[in-house]
Amino acid sequence: MSIAGAIAFIILAPVAGAILAGIDRKLTARVQRRVGPPILQPFYDVMKLFAKQGFAVNRFQGYYAFCFLLFTAIAGAIFFSGGDILLTIFVLTTGAIFLVLGAYAPDSPYSNIGAERELLQMMAYEPALLIAAMCFYLATGSFQSAEIASWHREPLLYLVPGAFLGFLFVLTIKLRKSPFDLSTSHHAHQELVKGLTTEFSGPTLALVEIAHWYENILLIGFVYLFFAGFSPSIAIIGTALVYLIEIFVDNLYARLTWQITVKSSWMIAGALAAVNLLVLGAMRGMP
Amino acid sequence: MSFTGKSPWIMHYDASSCNGCDIEVLACLTPLYDVERFGVINTGNPKHADILLITGSVNEQNIDVVKSIYAQMPEPKVVAAIGVCATSGGIFQECYNVKGGIDKVIPVDVYVPGCAVRPEALIDAVVGAIGLLEKKRAAMKAAAAAGGK
Q1: What is the pLDDT along chain A (287 residues), one digit of tens a residue?
Q2: Into how many domains does chain B fold?
Q3: Cβ-defined contact of A53 to B76 (cutoff 8 Å)
Q4: B6, B29, B35: which to substitute to probe chain A, counting the most A Cβ within 10 Å?
């Protein structure tokens, strides 16, 4: 465990997350043959939100938004300090639950439906995420992210290809990208107004945005683990490619229903990861 | 440094427009005009919006709706009346159910005449609204400082 990694994450992740979101929006605009906003636009948005009047629907909402930010930041800090990836996933889920509570707090139908869909999304991505973590353990013999990242016997991707594909599948849900942007999304969100974040406004919405930046950087870190064992430059290129693919998928697909989301993420992503787990278990001579 | 003017999120409401101006509002978001260049996002949610674009004249049915949308927007906020119907009622002002321009119900900051409004005029209106947003933000800050003393 290194404290430096945790502190670096807490300070640098929002900066990196904002730039990543800016690149995302710029690339999306270029795909649609538009000029697109400046790269720093997400940063401008959040600074503006902090300057807005604070509208609180009730006294719990701001607290839940803050807890979402806090737990997401802690999850990232555990991961980047080389800590336990299972614990990271659990703390990340706790953060997500606070966001759901925040969306359930006001008596607003759009916000409540968004919260329900977020719970369904969590149900969809959680198995593949956990099985991927178990595959890491079976392959490397450790749940510590530092030990997995410094795994050098052979590229980890060769041992956990199924878990990798399953993770890619649920990553789309976690990054809130089409076709799985059911609960809230950054564009074309008129169906549920803004879903989960409808009732958040001004400074509380800014907190939710910053928490998303933390979350995205943490997930990018997870993707990097799959490339451990390759040289760092190949690992970074691989991680960047994964994010690029996510942006293109976001632009190519229309939103699916929650039924298809849950079914496909269990039957495709969950199954791929589970088969990978069983094969790894057999290889390692475990029952 | 103020970031208020760098990310003006808009909310568009069709009061009783013929859809001519509405199509032009949406045209601004298309690749040809691409107002996202200036950080503009069409939010569709008054709680996230900075600029309210209203097309069409206010009628007896939607007075409360317009008032409610305006009340749900956090300060600083700017209202732009888009098209001649929104500015004055236009050719519908004599109708029995039409109240008139948007300023009969809520305070309007920017008036954009035209039937239908050109996208260029709309972009000009948003840029004008950004200036007003900055001013209102400064006034808010001054008021907060005076209140804190």
Answers
A1: 588 888 988 999 999 999 999 999 999 889 888 888 999 999 999 998 988 888 777 888 889 999 999 999 999 999 999 889 999 999 999 999 999 999 898 888 888 988 999 999 999 999 999 999 999 998 888 898 888 888 888 888 888 899 999 999 999 998 888 888 887 776 656 677 778 888 888 889 999 999 999 999 999 999 998 988 888 888 899 999 999 999 999 888 888 888 898 999 999 988 999 999 898 888 876 54
A2: 1
A3: yes
A4: B6
**Nearest to residue A105, comparing CAs of A193, A199, A20, A208?**
A199
Range of the domain at A102: 3-282
Please tell me if residue B39 touches chain A, with a CB cutoff of 8 Å. yes
Domain membership of residue B40 (yes or no) is yes
Judged by a CB distance cut-off of 8 A, whether residue B138 touches chain A is: no
CB contact under 8 A, B31 and A48: no
In a domain, A88, yes or no: yes
- Examine residue A211 and state whether it is found in any structural domain, yes or no: yes
Q: How far apart are CA A274 and CA B12, in angstroms?
A: 47
Question: What is the distance between the alpha carbons of residues A29 and A50, in angstroms, rounded to a whole number?
Answer: 26
CA distance A270 to A272: 6
A contacts of B140 (beta carbons < 8 Å): 53
Overall number of domains in chain A: 1
Q: Which domain holds residue B43?
A: 4-140
Indicate whether B148 belongs to any domain. no
Strand-pair category, B58-59 with B98-100: antiparallel
Question: Does residue B149 sit within a domain?
Answer: no
Q: Does B135 contact chain A (CB < 8 Å)?
A: no
Q: Is A24 helix (H, G, I), strand (E, B) or coil?
A: helix
Q: Does A30 touch chain B (CB under 8 A)?
A: no
Residue A33 to residue B43, Cβ atoms within 8 A: no
Paired residues of B14 in beta bridges: B55
Distance between CA B22 and CA B38 in Å, rounded? 20
Q: What is the ipTM of this complex?
A: 0.86
Query: What residues of chain A lie within 8 A of the CB of B4, using their CB?
Result: 48, 51
**Residue A287 included in any domain:** no
Q: Which of A33, A44, A51 shows the shortest C-beta gap to B39?
A: A44
Whether residue B147 is contained in a domain is answered as: no
